[in-house]
């Protein structure tokens, strides 16, 4: 089941935190609970993705993205992700999530998130997100203009992000089987 109570807690907390610049880093703290575990008694890989939601939503609130999309009656969608799992997260481990916007192109925003156990990075994700309306994807220049940044340009995307974007253009869609 989706952790609606945890999400509500993060949303309430984010309204009490200072406004973040669009290039700021949102940091949140969580615990790996028994219901987050898989059969190997570690954080389930699907739940990892859900916990990353608990970082992106408050990031959107603190930067003003969420308020802008709500005012415009736009929605948001995850349009792709690449995850690296590197260290096990066990029951009752305390984890820190870090979320930041890396940059954008004409249609998508690229968000980087990491999950830390102390000084060790356990998981890392690159998320491609889109803002949508009833007609499809809302261009990022429209979103930025609505947020009050009509002339803001994306910082250069790191090579590893550009490489992922390029590799994804060669992926067949729909799948061939």
UniProtKB/TrEMBL annotation:
Q: Which InterPro entries match?
A: HotDog_dom_sf, THEM6_lcsJ_thioesterase
N-terminal signal peptide: none
Q: Can you name the source organism?
A: Maritimibacter alkaliphilus HTCC2654
Report what the protein is called.
Thioeseterase
One Pfam match, by short name?
4HBT_2
């Amino acid at each position: 089941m989706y952790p609606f109570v945890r999400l509500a807690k993060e949303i309430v907390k984010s309204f009490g935190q200072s406004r973040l610049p669009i290039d700021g880093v949102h940091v949140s703290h969580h615990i790996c609970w028994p219901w987050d575990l898989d059969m190997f008694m570690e954080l389930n890989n699907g739940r990892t993705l859900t916990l990353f939601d608990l970082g992106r939503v408050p990031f959107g609130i603190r930067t003003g993205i969420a308020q802008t999309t709500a005012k415009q009656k736009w929605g948001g969608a995850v349009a792709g992700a690449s995850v690296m799992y590197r260290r096990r997260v066990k029951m009752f481990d305390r984890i820190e999530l870090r979320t930041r916007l890396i940059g954008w192109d004409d249609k998508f925003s690229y968000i980087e998130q990491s999950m830390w156990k102390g000084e060790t990075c356990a998981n890392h994700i690159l998320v491609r997100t889109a803002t949508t309306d009833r007609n499809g994807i809302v261009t990022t220049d429209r979103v930025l203009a609505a947020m009050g940044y009509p002339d803001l340009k994306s910082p250069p995307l790191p090579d590893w992000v550009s490489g992922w974007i390029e590799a994804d253009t060669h992926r067949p869609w729909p799948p061939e089987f």
